[in-house]
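In this section we walk through a basic example: taking a raw amino acid sequence and producing a predicted 3D structure, encoded as discrete structure tokens. The instruction is simple. Fold the sequence below.
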Amino acid sequence: MKYLQILLVLVLSGSMMTSCVTTKKFNALDASMKKMENDKNDCDTKLAQSKIANDKLTTQNGFLQSQVDDLKKQLDDQKKNNSQVLNTLQDMSVLSTKQAESVKQTLQTIGEKDNFIQGLQSAMARKDSLNMALVMNLKGAIGDLNDKDVNIKVDKSAVYIDISDKMLFNSGKYAVTDNAKKVLGKVAKVLNAYPDIEFLVEGHTDTVSMHSQCLEDNWDLSVKRATAVVRILQTQYGIQPSRMTAAGRSQYLPVDSNDTADGRSKNRRTRIVILPQLDQFFKLLVKK
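The resulting token sequence is shown next.
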């Protein structure tokens, strides 16, 4: 009887151990599936953001392409008219050799302008590709931050990075918060990957007047916030100071109405403007 009791205890213990192992495996599998679902949602979000940025660039390219096509059509029509006039005058023997040569040179100049337009079109496409790559790298580096806090866009050949006031500074202050330094570090990592580009750091405020022992007015606050950001990018993240410009715009370049709290919040921002490099742009026109 005693042996049967021992055998029963061993069987029950084995059953409990098997149940425990099965539960652990199930929990581990469930956690893995949840992580995979979260990763998929993150990828879907980034893909949607990429599509929006790509659609904007496609619209801009379409507008530029339409302008280029109009110019090419005007040139083609002008070349046809000039050729017809030249042939007519030569046939009538009323055009001197010198005048005929002058007209030929004019036609040659038009041809050169046509080639320039084609080169300009190609350069614009390459420049837009560079801007698109820069925007995507910035979005990838910054990650899933709220678009209300960090907004990246391309407008009029420049890349704009708007960072909200509440992320960078405490109210009425110009000392950059520790959390904001992490965001600036991510932006600096991408900017350091493009060592030839220059950029402008702008401070913006709302219309609420600011005055203290350290600040004269909103002009003063906006400039000090811009220089605070530039100083961190230089001293903590190694960006060359020759690439940066700090500027204060005070309250005079709002993006929304200052009549509401939400509008004033949008207007209090720091903007990093990646400037179009005209010398580098024209280098794109040179055939390699």
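Looking at the output, two observations stand out. The chain has two domains: 1-144, 145-288. Residues 145-288 form a domain with the 60s Ribosomal Protein L30; Chain: A; fold (CATH 3.30.1330.60). In the next section we compare this with other chains.
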